[in-house]
Every structure is written in C-alpha cells, then in structure tokens.
C-alpha cells in the first residue's frame, strides 16, 4: 500500500462532532494500542498514539504518519504505512472508535482519502545498489562505501531495520579472551568432555576442525576449568551439529563447511568493525539466546542505534538511502545483472544502473503460502501458525534472484521459534533471560524437554504438548539477567498488562496458569537439584544458570511461531550468487537470510546476526571492487 507523503486531500465531507478529548484502544501487532483524539465542533484538531506495545523502530513510521494524515485529511480513508500494516490498522481502528464516541459518521469519514501526488520516473547510476535495509543491507552498504564505492540502498518499507530490528539482536562470536574472564556455567566441563568421544570419521569436511577442538579441550581441562571456555572451532562444530538434519525425503542437510568457517572466523572481527568503522555503540555484555548452545552472544547498546549509526555512515560516504522503494525487477544484459528497477511510494519508477547488485532482502517467514509450499522438514506446518517476522519478510529477493536464473538451496528447511508469545506470535517479551536459566513446563505443570537444546528440538517438543503451548518459569533472581534490559517497573507493567504472570508462591502461580500445583512444585524442586548437580538425567540439559527459588515467581505462555527460513539463494564464499551450474552470476551478490547453505537444517540462536553482518560486509567489499 502507498506510503503517506507528498499527498493531497480529496474533497472533504462536512462532519459534526461533540467537542472534547476521546481515548480508545485497539489491538496492535504486540498488544493494545491507545489513541487520543481531540475534537472541536467541526474539526479533528489532533490525533496521537499515547500508549502502545509495538516494536520500536519498526512501528515508528505508522505511529508518526497515520495520526497526522487523519488530521490532514479530516477523514479516516488513510492507506497503511508500508511495512507497518497491522500498527497502521490499529491506529485507524482506535481513532474510529474515538470518533464514533463523539457522534461522528465513521463510515463517511472512511470515504475521505489522501491520494498520492503523481511522481516522475527517474534514473540513477552508481557502483553498487543494495536491495534491503535490514542488518545485511546496512552492513553491505557500509562496507561498499568504506571501499570508496558510490552506493544506493533501497528498502521497500518505511524504515530501516526489517527482521533484524525485530530479533533478539545477539551476535554470536567466539571471544576466548573475554569469555575466559567469566565463571563457567554448571555443566560446561561435562559437555566439553563429551566432545572428546566424538568420532572424527563421522564429521566429513569438519573432521580437522574437530581434531583441533579436541586438542583445545584437553589443554583447557588441564588448567582452570572454573572459567568459561570457547574457541572458533567449538563455534564451528556446534553450528554444524545443530544444522545437520534429515528432511522428510531422507536427504541429509548440513551447512557448507567453507561458509560456516567464514561465519565463525569472521564474526568477532566484524562485530568490532561495526563499532570501530561504522560507529555502532557496542555492549560488553554476553548472552545466550534460545537455541544458542553456548554463551557467546555479543550485543549492542541499542537496536535502533545500529541502524542510525549505519545510516549516518553510509550517507557520509557517498551513499543514498531510499525508503518505501521496492525493487521489482533486475536489469539484465544477457546473463549479467546491471541494475534494478524500483517502484517508489508515489507510483513512479526508479531505475538504478549499477556495476553490482547486492540482494539483502531477508527471508520469507512472513509469507505463509511460500513457507508451506517449500516446507520439506516439518510433517506439517500447524494451521494458523503465527510468525515472529515483520510483514516485509515475503521472499522478494528470492524472486529477484530467480530472474537471473539463480540456484536455490535448502528452501524446505524452516525454523520455528519455540519461545514466541502464544498471544501475539512475536518473540516473547516478558522473560528474555539467557537460555541457561530457562525452565519450561507444559499445561500439566511438568517439564518436557532440555531447555538448552536446538530450536527445532524445542519447537517439536512444544508442539507435542497440550494445545502446543507451554509456560516459561522464572523467579525474582532472574530479573536482573533479562536480555531486554527491562527494569522491575517495566516487568511489573508487563504483569499489569497480562504479558506476565506473577505470584508470591509456586502454588499461587500454578493457580494463575491453570496447572496442578503439586506438579509444578515437584518439577521446580527436581530442576533445582539438577542445577546443583550440573546434570539433568531426565532430559539431558547440560548447561545451567541459577535455581528457581526466590519469590515472586513469574510465568509467560509461549507457543512456536515461524521464525527463520534457512534456504535461499546459493552463494559462494565471496557472497556471489550462483546459477544452477554452480557459476557466479556476473553483477549479483547476496547476504543474509535471502541466502541458503550456511545454517543447514536448523540455525543456532545468535548465528543470524553473525551471518548477516559477516556476509553483508563481504558482499559489500567485493561488490565495491
């Protein structure tokens, strides 16, 4: 739908209102959204969103533009802001309710529109054009600009960020120097000792890496095992193991060794490049997102700050950014890609001629039909399943790549996020603690899985529970570890809004979530004993945080959602897109979730940010050459 901007108002119909200030709420993407409407007797004086739970950065364009458009139009026939459809519709719904309370003819107001002014078709020529403004796109554009190339980045929605901004935003990178300063988690030594029994003959291209890792572990075990261990080789082996899967046809799927090696070897370097070169504010906090398997998630001071810094860097280094500009076609000269044709918000065409094109459009997790069409891993995608993805993750880059006869790989491997909100389908806001702290129980109050396992293992286990839902249990001591950095005041606000359950005893918490109290209490008692022992004989959890023992206690209801699509365009180590013959397509690069072949059949939590930043940087540097 057209983005608001450069608009003219159709002939207005006269409306009469009961003057005053009116408030109304509607359901947004993540929860209730409240709008305040101020009216005089014959005019909408102001409209403002006064409270919401929408994702910062992603929903901002709608929150800024829709209210002012209502006032400008003096009507409700406003198009949704590109990339913010659900938030836009929620604002309009709440405003409609407020106006109805004032005696307005809402249906008549919906007939008053803003129509976009016609724009002129334009052409530009640059060295590099980047399609997509998420993490891979801003990394690619920054990297190309760093090399002195002229760059244009086009993003189809109204803001930079995409799925990256909706993610947990932890970037996996083995950092032994930093990690060796941290106390080891319970169970780490036993986990590493088990690696020594791995059969190298079963690891194919990864055998030499495993051999090196065993040497590293033996050296570690001779020293101070009270400190955290990590290495690039351990990151590589965990990435390989977590992604080695068998699809429904019996075919084995795993990550390409060279791509995985580059991902793991270059991640820490790229993290510091974002800080030192692009100017992103980095955090020294490490985290372990769900399914990360180890404590190596590097973080940033703020999600929005990453994109603000990148935008500033790109524009200061001979780069341009066009928002609400959708790439619809590649320009081809024989088999070579020489640019893109885009459609702008006003309907005009923008033709960009370039030496090289980088596709960084993300995956297709918000395209339910495409997910079901390609799925070859899950026996069935549950009917009505929600997605953690932003609306723009619809597979556009894959369709563009196919115009150049690109090869696809791993398209059937779709990841479900186990810890999504059962209410909204989004990443569960309430208890974003590191995964070593996780304790999950089903509706019967019983544990059912190793909470530190891979995401597909967790999702499969969750879907087999009653109604496919479960509860994440935590105690007061875990609040300071929240990865969303929520304060106690914010946690209490989540309780008030019904996002979290909170109780002074486990019995009372069980009553709130509707499970037998004796089961929940027994599950917690047993789990706490496993934390002490560093061993879980029931489900094999091998890394632990703290026990659940300090009131008040918390719970949040969760259910798997479509999260990540592992398949996409086939690339080589230079981030060049390959055709069916395995040859690089001249002028075409790709990075991020639009590509396949890195994560195999299941992605390690925290590896997506590493992927998009590492290969975005590689694509940008090579395209600039």
Automatic annotation (TrEMBL):
Pfam families membership: FAD_binding_2, FAD_oxidored, FMN_bind
Question: Entry cofactor note text?
Answer: Binds 1 FAD per subunit. Binds 1 or 2 FMN covalently per subunit.
A GO CC annotation recorded here is: membrane
Question: SUPFAM superfamilies per the record?
Answer: FAD/NAD(P)-binding domain, Succinate dehydrogenase/fumarate reductase flavoprotein, catalytic domain
Enzyme class, UniProt record, top EC level: oxidoreductase
According to its UniProt record, which reaction does this protein catalyse? dihydrourocanate + A = urocanate + AH2
State any single GO MF term. Answer: FMN binding
Which residues belong to any copy of the FMN-binding domain? 28-102
Q: Which InterPro entries match?
A: FAD-dep_OxRdtase_2_FAD-bd, FAD-oxidoreductase_2, FAD/NAD-bd_sf, Flavocytochrome_c, FMN-bd, Succ_DH/fumarate_Rdtase_cat_sf
- Cofactor(s) recorded in Swiss-Prot or TrEMBL: FAD; FMN
Question: What is the name of the protein in this document?
Answer: Urocanate reductase
């Amino acid at each position: 739908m057209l983005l608001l901007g450069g608009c003219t108002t159709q002939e207005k119909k006269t409306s009469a209102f009961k003057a005053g200030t009116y408030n109304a709420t509607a359901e947004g993407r993540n929860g209730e959204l409240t709008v305040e409407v101020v009216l005089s007797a014959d005019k909408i004086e102001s409209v403002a969103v006064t409270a919401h739970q929408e994702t910062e950065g992603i929903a901002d364009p709608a929150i800024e533009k829709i209210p002012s458009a209502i006032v400008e139009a003096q009507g409700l026939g406003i198009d949704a802001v590109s990339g913010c459809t659900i938030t836009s519709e929620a604002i309009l719904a709440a405003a409609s309710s407020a106006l109805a309370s004032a005696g307005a003819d809402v249906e008549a107001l919906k007939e008053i529109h803003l129509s976009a002014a016609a724009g002129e078709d334009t052409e530009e020529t640059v060295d590099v054009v980047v399609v997509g403004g998420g993490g891979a796109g801003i990394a690619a554009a920054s990297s190309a600009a760093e090399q002195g190339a002229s760059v244009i980045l086009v993003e189809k929605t109204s803001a930079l960020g995409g799925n990256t901004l909706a993610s947990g935003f932890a970037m996996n990178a083995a950092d032994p120097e930093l990690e060796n300063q941290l106390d080891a988690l319970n169970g780490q030594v036993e986990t590493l000792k088990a690696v020594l029994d791995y059969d190298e003959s079963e690891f194919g291209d990864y055998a030499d890496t495993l051999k090196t890792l065993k040497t590293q572990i033996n050296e570690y075990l001779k020293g101070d095992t009270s400190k955290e261990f990590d290495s690039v080789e351990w990151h590589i082996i965990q990435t390989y193991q977590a992604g080695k899967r068998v699809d429904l046809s019996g075919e084995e799927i795993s990550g390409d060794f060279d791509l995985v090696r580059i991902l793991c070897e270059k991640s820490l370097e790229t993290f510091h490049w974002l800080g030192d070169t692009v100017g992103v504010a980095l955090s020294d906090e490490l985290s372990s997102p769900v399914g990360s398997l180890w404590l190596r998630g590097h973080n940033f001071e703020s999600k929005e700050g990453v994109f603000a810094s990148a935008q500033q860097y790109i524009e200061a280094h001979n780069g341009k950014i066009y928002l609400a500009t959708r790439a619809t076609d590649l320009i081809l000269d024989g088999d070579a890609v020489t640019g893109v044709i885009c459609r702008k918000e006003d309907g005009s065409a923008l033709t960009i001629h370039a030496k090289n094109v980088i596709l960084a459009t993300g995956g297709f997790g918000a395209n339910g039909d495409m997910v079901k069409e390609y799925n070859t891993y899950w026996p069935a995608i549950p009917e009505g399943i929600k997605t953690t993805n932003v609306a723009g993750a619809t597979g556009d880059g894959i369709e563009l790549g196919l115009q150049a006869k690109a090869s696809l790989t791993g398209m059937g491997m779709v990841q479900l996020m186990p810890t999504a909100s059962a209410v909204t389908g989004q990443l569960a806001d309430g208890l974003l603690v590191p995964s070593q702290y996780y304790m999950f129980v089903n509706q019967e109050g019983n544990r059912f899985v190793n909470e530190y396992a891979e995401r597909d293992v967790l999702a499969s286990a969750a879907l087999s529970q009653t109604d496919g839902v479960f509860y994440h249990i935590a105690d007061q001591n875990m609040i300071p570890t929240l990865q969303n950095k929520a304060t106690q005041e914010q946690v209490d606000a989540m309780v008030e809004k019904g996002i979290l359950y909170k109780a002074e005893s486990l019995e009372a918490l069980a009553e709130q979530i509707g499970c037998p109290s004796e089961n929940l209490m027994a599950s917690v008692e047993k789990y706490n004993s496993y934390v002490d022992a560093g061993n879980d004989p029931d489900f094999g959890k091998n890394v632990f945080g703290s026990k659940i023992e300090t009131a008040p206690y918390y719970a949040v209801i969760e259910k798997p959602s479509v999260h990540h699509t592992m398949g996409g365009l086939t690339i080589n180590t230079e981030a060049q897109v390959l055709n069916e013959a395995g040859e690089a397509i001249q002028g075409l690069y790709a990075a991020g979730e639009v590509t396949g072949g890195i994560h195999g059949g299941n992605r390690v939590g925290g590896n997506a940010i590493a992927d998009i930043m590492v290969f975005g940087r590689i694509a940008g540097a090579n395209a600039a050459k």
